[in-house]
Amino acid sequence: MSIPTTAQAPAHAAPAPEPVPEDEIKGVHRKFVTGVTIVTAMDGDRPRGLAVNAFCSLSITPPLVMVCVQRTSSTYEPLFRATHMGISILAADQLPVASVFARKSDDKFAGLRWSRAAHGSPLIDHSAATLEAGIEERIQTATHTVFIGRVLEATSSARPPLIYSAGGFFDGGRLDQAAP
To answer: How many CB atoms are located within 10 Å of the residue 146 CB?
Structure first.
């Protein structure tokens, strides 16, 4: 008897379902509110980074985080080679920073205040929170790589976060608490 692997489906498998329309997928994702993060790594002596909304905490003990990066990003190769990554959760007044890191540019750090974490990862100054993580796993998917890192240092401030939802940016300090 042969045991199916991920490469082979069982003989009784149902036919593949029709793909969900892209506009429906986008509609669902627009309902998810997320912080705005900048993921960074050093490329030799040059800092590299990109805006990423696919960031989350995996666990507190051990302290693990995850980010997903598209393989076509100019930051992808330096991040893939790196042993550490920086993550800056932008503050509500850092929308201009988010705009720079959301676009392609040769030097996104030009004129930007940043500092190096203990293991060299670039961190954006005045962010709501920052962390540096040692990259422990790289999981390949069709178009992205999931980077899992163990948090080695973390700082947070009282600054409200920049929030992204439904294609817009919002001040995370001005949210109304939901009624019970």
So the answer is: 14
